[in-house]
Design goal:
It is built from 13 helices and 22 strands. It has helices at residues 78-81, 93-102, 131-141, 159-162, 166-180, 187-191, 222-231, 285-292, 312-317, 331-343, 381-387, 417-421, 453-474; strands at 10-13, 26-27, 54-60, 63-69, 83-88, 113-114, 120-124, 148-152, 197-200, 203-206, 235-239, 252-256, 261-266, 269-274, 300-303, 323-328, 350-354, 368-371, 394-403, 430-431, 478-492, 495-506. Helix 5 packs antiparallel against helix 7 (222-231) and helix 11 (381-387) crosses helix 13 (453-474). Bound molecules: S-adenosylmethionine.
C-alpha cells in the first residue's frame, strides 16, 4: 500500500519497460525533477518523461511492488484510492481468480486491470494477502506464471461497487483504509460511521452523532481524505449542537479543506454562506416555495429573523415585495445576506438591520412581517405588532414548533384515498374562508382541510395574544383572523414546525 512506503522509497519505471522485473529507467518523484527520468532527459526507452499512465515502483520491506497510475503519486486523494493487486499473464487469469475467490482474497469492488505490458492485475484484499498465497499461486495454481504484487493507484470500481449506496461505499473504503493502517475494523467502528450527511457542492457536512469513537482520533487527519474520496467531495465538516444562544450558530468544524463557504441554488435564487458560521435548513423548502408564491407586490415587509436571506430573498425575487427590512444579529449571517442580496440583484430593495430585532427603531411601516424563528418567535411578537401599518394592518407569518401527542394523528377531512396516501403535508391545511377582511392570501384555492388539534389550539392562543399586543402597542382595538396554518417539517418525534398566517387589521372607528 502507498502508506507503507515513504516517498523516498518510491521510484517510477517507464511504461515501455516490457519485462516487469527489469527496471528500465527511474523517475525519482522526490528529486524535484518533476517526475522526469532521473537517468537522462532523452532516455532511450521513454523519451525522458513519463506519459500518462506510467508504471511506478515501490520498494518496501516486504519486497518490491509496482504501482500504476496517471500522474503524480502525491496527487490529492490518490493514495486513498489505491488497491493491492496480483499481476499475472492473461492465460492464468481464471485460475488466479478462482484461487483468490476461494481464499476470500478477491477484491470484488474493483475491476481487473489490463496493464500496458499485456499482463493483468487482479485487485485483492491486501491486508489478508500473505507470501504463502503468492507461493501457492506461482507453484501450484499456475506453475510457471508470473506472480507479482502491485498497487493500482487509480482502480476502476467494479459494476457491483458502482451500484452500492454512498453509505456502503463509505463503509467499504474507510474499513479498507483503516485496516491498511493496522487497526482492526470492528462493529463499533462500523456503527460509528455516518448514515446520512448534507452535501453542499463539494463540501460534505457530517452530523454530530458519527465518528465519536476514540480510535478515530489517531487516524486523523488522513481519515477525512479517505471519507472525502469515498464520497467524491473535497471538503469535510462536522456539526456540533446548534448554539442555544439565539444566533442558531451550528458549531461546525472544518475537518478537511480551507474554507466553509458553499453555494446553493434554490428556486432560481443563489444562496452563499459559510457552513461553519451559519445554518441552512433543507427542511424549510416548502415554506420558501410558499413564500415565493405570496402576492406581495407593492408591499413593505419586515423579516425579523433574516439569517442569510432564506425568506427575504424569495419575498424580493419571486413574490415581488417592494421593500424588505431584514433583521439579523449574527454578523456572519449578515455578511452572507449582503452577498446574497447582491448576487441576486435585489440589494437596492432591502435594508439590513444588524442587531437585536427587539430593539428595532422601526414602526408603522409593514404590510407583512415574517417571524422565521423556531422553536418560537414569541419574543418578536411585540416588535412585529409595532412595525405593522397602524391604519391598514397586515399579515404575520409566525413560525412555531408545536408538540402533539401520539395517537392523535392528522385528520384529513374529505380527502380522497389518493390524498390520504400522500399525507401528511398537502399545500393548504387550515384555511379560514371568513368573509371579513379577505385578502389575496385568504382567497387562494383551498385543498381539503386537515390539522392536528394541537396546531389549532396553539394558533388560537397565538391569535389571542397578538390581539392583546396590538391593542397595547397601537392604543386601539384590532381584529385578527387565522388565515392558514402551514406545516413546514417534522422537527422531532411529535414536534412539528408550522407557520401561522395571521391577518391583523385595525378596527374601523365607530361613529
Ligand atoms: C432559524 S434562523 C432563521 C433563518 C431562516 N428564517 C430559516 O428558517 O432558515 C434564525 C435567525 O434569526 C437570527 N436571530 C435570532 N434572534 C434574533 C434577534 N433577537 N434579533 C435578530 N436576529 C435574530 C439568528 O441569528 C438566525 O440567523
Amino acid at each position: 500500500m502507498a502508506a507503507a512506503t515513504s516517498p523516498r522509497q518510491r521510484r517510477r519505471i517507464c511504461p515501455q519497460a516490457h519485462q516487469p522485473f527489469v527496471l528500465a529507467c527511474h523517475f525519482d518523484v522526490t528529486s524535484g525533477s518533476g517526475g522526469r527520468c532521473a537517468r537522462s532527459s532523452s532516455c532511450c526507452c521513454c523519451g525522458g518523461g513519463p506519459g500518462p499512465g506510467e508504471w511506478s515502483l515501490s520498494e518496501s520491506r516486504g519486497g518490491t511492488r509496482r504501482e500504476w497510475g496517471t500522474g503524480s503519486m502525491e496527487r490529492e486523494g490518490g493514495k486513498n484510492a489505491a488497491v493491492v493487486a496480483v499481476v499475472t499473464e492473461p492465460r492464468f487469469t481464471q485460475r488466479y481468480r478462482e484461487y483468490l475467490e476461494k481464499q476470500k482474497l478477491l477484491d470484488r469492488q474493483h475491476r481487473v486491470a489490463k496493464m500496458p505490458d499485456g499482463t493483468v492485475a487482479l485487485p485483492v484484499l491486501g491486508e489478508a494477502l500473505r507470501e504463502q498465497h503468492l507461493r501457492e499461486l506461482r507453484n501450484c495454481v499456475a506453475p510457471g506464471s508470473t506472480c507479482i504484487v502491485t498497487q493500482l493507484l487509480h482502480p476502476v470500481p467494479s459494476k457491483k461497487a458502482q451500484s452500492c449506496s454512498p453509505a456502503q461505499r463509505l463503509c467499504l473504503e474507510v474499513s479498507r483504509w483503516v485496516e491498511g493502517r493496522g487497526v482492526t475494523w470492528s462493529a463499533e467502528l462500523e456503527a460509528d460511521l455516518p448514515r446520512s450527511w448534507q452535501r453542499h457542492g463539494n463540501l460534505l457536512l457530517l452530523s454530530e452523532d458519527c465518528f465519536q469513537a476514540k480510535q478515530w482520533k489517531n487516524l486523523e487527519p488522513e481519515l477525512w481524505e479517505t471519507v472525502a474520496s469515498a464520497l467524491g467531495v473535497r471538503r469535510v465538516a462536522k456539526r456540533g449542537r446548534v448554539s442555544p444562544d439565539g444566533t442558531r450558530t451550528p458549531a461546525v468544524t472544518l475537518l478537511l479543506g480551507d474554507h466553509g463557504w458553499v453555494e446553493h441554488v434554490d428556486n432560481g435564487i443563489r444562496y452563499k454562506f459559510d457552513v461553519t458560521q451559519c445554518m441552512f435548513s433543507f427542511g424549510n423548502i416548502t415554506e420558501k416555495l410558499r413564500v415565493a408564491s405570496l402576492p406581495c407586490a407593492r408591499e413593505v415587509l419586515v423579516d425579523l429573523y433574516a439569517g442569510i436571506g432564506y425568506f427575504t430573498l424569495p419575498f424580493l425575487v419571486h413574490a415581488g415585495a417592494a421593500f424588505v427590512h431584514a433583521c439579523e444579529w449574527n454578523p456572519h449571517a449578515v455578511v452572507a445576506l449582503r452577498t446574497n442580496l447582491e448576487i441576486n440583484g435585489v440589494a437596492d430593495r432591502c435594508q439590513i438591520h444588524f442587531g437585536d430585532n427587539r430593539k428595532l427603531k422601526l414602526s408603522n411601516i409593514a404590510d407583512r412581517v415574517n417571524l422565521g424563528l423556531i422553536p418560537s418567535s414569541e419574543e418578536g411578537w411585540p416588535i412585529a405588532c409595532q412595525v405593522l401599518k397602524q391604519d391598514a394592518g397586515g399579515i404575520l407569518h409566525i413560525h412555531q414548533n408545536v408538540e402533539s401527542f401520539p395517537g392523535k394523528n392528522l385528520q384529513p377531512l374529505g380527502s380522497s384515498e389518493m390524498e390520504k396516501e400522500h399525507w401528511p403535508y398537502p399545500q393548504q391545511i387550515i384555511t379560514n374562508q371568513g368573509t371579513n377582511g379577505a385578502t389575496g392570501d385568504s382567497r387562494r384555492k383551498t385543498l381539503p382541510a386537515a390539522t392536528k388539534p394541537e396546531w389549532q389550539r396553539w394558533a388560537e392562543s397565538a391569535e389571542t395574544r397578538i390581539a392583546t399586543l396590538l391593542r397595547q402597542v397601537h392604543g386601539k382595538p384590532w381584529k385578527t383572523q387565522i388565515l392558514h396554518i402551514q406545516p413546514v417539517k417534522s422537527y422531532a418525534p411529535h414536534v412539528d414546525h408550522i407557520v401561522l398566517d395571521l391577518e391583523c387589521r385595525p378596527c374601523p372607528l365607530v361613529g
